[in-house]
Amino acid sequence: MTLIKRNPLTPTLPRFFDDFFLRDMFDWDFKNNSLTNTTLPSVNIIESHDRFMVEMAAPGMVKDDFIIELDNEILTISSEKEISHNLKEGENFTRREFSYEAFKRTFHLPKTVVDASKIKATYNDGILRVAIPKKEEAKALPPRRIEIK
Fold it and tell me: What is the pTM of this model?
């Protein structure tokens, strides 16, 4: 998914078609995939005046389970986790199936829009939040009135 700066003053119909034709289902590069039959964590992307916020629903994990990397303009959030079950004394496996979960999500962050040196991440209550600040020149200026002389 690409983060795209939007202008709220533009008509909504062209944006609808942009979103329709640029969705992840047309991304055949397999950048957003799960390495097993697990479900990919859902993501919200919120834009405000000064930043983008990526929220990823990942309950039951701890912050050390995530790997967040930025390579040029590609932000990657991934995780690999093996779930093991410890046996108590006197117990034996009659059948054991390993549980392994892995996912990888990628996002394109244009260098002209985001300040990559100030990206921060937190994990709390099952939600991973990645704050991606905008560069000063990319922030929308408030409307101003122009005097006629």
Answer: 0.64
